[in-house]
Amino acid sequence: MHLLSQFSEYFSPHLTGFKQMNTPTTRSIDLDRIETWTKYRKTLCTTCQASCCRLPVEVWTEDLIRMELIDPFEKNDPPKQIAKKLRKAGIIDHFNYKNAIFFLARRANDDCLYLDETTRRCTIYDKRPQTCRNHPQIGPRAGYCAYQQQD
Ligand code: SF4
Fold it and tell me: Cis bond leading into 136, ω under 30°?
């Protein structure tokens, strides 16, 4: 899920469009520097401030259907056309034309559009994109995450 463009292209087949992120100031962890990430263990998620939901999220057409952002019958529509519609609706902020990959929009603080700002939980958890489901097993540093403890 969410790094610098050249960084992600080098490290992850699932994160090809990272943009520059703000550097967190509250913790020593640096989302842009995977060497500062923490080895993942299940219990981390309960005290984390959802830092993984501040990373760019790649989304495919199948995800968009599950997320009910497009109808199943739109599956074969040109991705460029879908991207135009979703960008206009503020749901994606980037589209990779070459690989037909969409990137979910993020707020000014880099939070994912679907992250609840108060609870720091995903508001579409059951329908969340495959990229989110795969994290951190697949991502910039497999088996590690950008854990940041809640205040
Ligand atoms: S879709 Fe949900 S799990 Fe995925 S980054 Fe956004 S808030 Fe997090």
Answer: yes
Q: Report residue 91 CA to chain centroid gap.
A: 12
Per-domain boundaries in the chain: 5-145
Ligand 1 binding pocket mutation candidate from 3, 64, 103, 115 (most atoms within 8 A of CB): 115
Q: Quick check: 140 and 15 in contact, CB under 8 A?
A: yes
Distance 68 CA to ligand 1 centre (A): 15
pLDDT tens digits, 1-58: 443 333 333 233 334 333 333 434 444 678 889 999 999 998 999 999 999 999 999 9
- The predicted-structure confidence for 59-77, as pLDDT tens digits, reads as follows 999 999 999 999 999 999 9
Measured from the CB, is residue 54 less than 6 Å from ligand 1? no
- 116: number of CA atoms within 13 Å, CB side? 8
User: Is any atom of ligand 1 closer than 6 Å to the C-beta of 132?
Assistant: yes
CB of 86 closer than 6 angstroms to any ligand 1 atom: no
Rounded-to-integer distance, Cα 141 and Cα 145, Å: 7
